[in-house]
Amino acid sequence: MAYDDLRSWIAALDRAGELKKISAEVDPILEITEITDRVSKMGGAGAPARGGHAPGGPALLFQNIKAYPGSQVLINQFGSARRMKMALEVDSLDEVAERIRAFMDVKSPQGFLDKVKMLPMLAEMGRFFPKTVSSGPCKEVIKRDTFSLLDFPILQCWPKDAGRFITLPCVITRDPNTGKRNVGCYRMQVYDARSTGMHWQRQKIGAEHYREMLRRAAAQSMEGQPPSAVEASKARQFSSGVDIMARTSGGSQMPEAALPPGKMEVAVAIGTDPALAFSS
To answer: In terms of Cα–Cα distance, which of 175, 173, 170 is closest to 187?
Structure first.
């Protein structure tokens, strides 16, 4: 990995002249994203550099956030081809595509020599699998009862947004049947200090994990329930992607006291900082 944490990445951007630090006070409600929107549109593809920066503008580090003393906001960090290449440690983004293509096009070895030739690739693939460790940056400071999403300068991006959104979370869910993990980026609307709304479309894998949890929970609490709910709980895959509550007319026949129990295992890493995460 090229960068151990967000601090080292910010330092690399600064050394490369790809970072603009802003000390003036800015508001996380609409103002930061308005500034960023203008900066990121400093010339289209193939346009000449402006203000010493290539199209896409510089990464921005806001250091004085209104109502959040001591907090900083990094934004537009991947807003140019050069910064993307820096992050991936390549001279051309095509290099990444070639690496992926090489792994996707692997053919079964036909003999001993073919197997020997595959050893370097297999060794590299072995490094891809996740490992369970006992410690890490995300465990250096753990907040439980005192945790609040409102402690972070989460942005409201657009005037007609419903509120503040975490816009670049890596949402990690597990398949309830196989235990396999999935990582997806879904906007998360902050409702209050400890709850968010997950904005995932019905075709997303994380959404399917959620529907499966509903089906399993409903199947465990169907005794005495309406026939429509029992039948819906039997279905494991819906080609239309309609969730179980829609299959039972919105759950209108199910009394509140009998709503299916269950808890979905979800972890969220915010942005590119491995030290900033929360789970439920």
So the answer is: 170
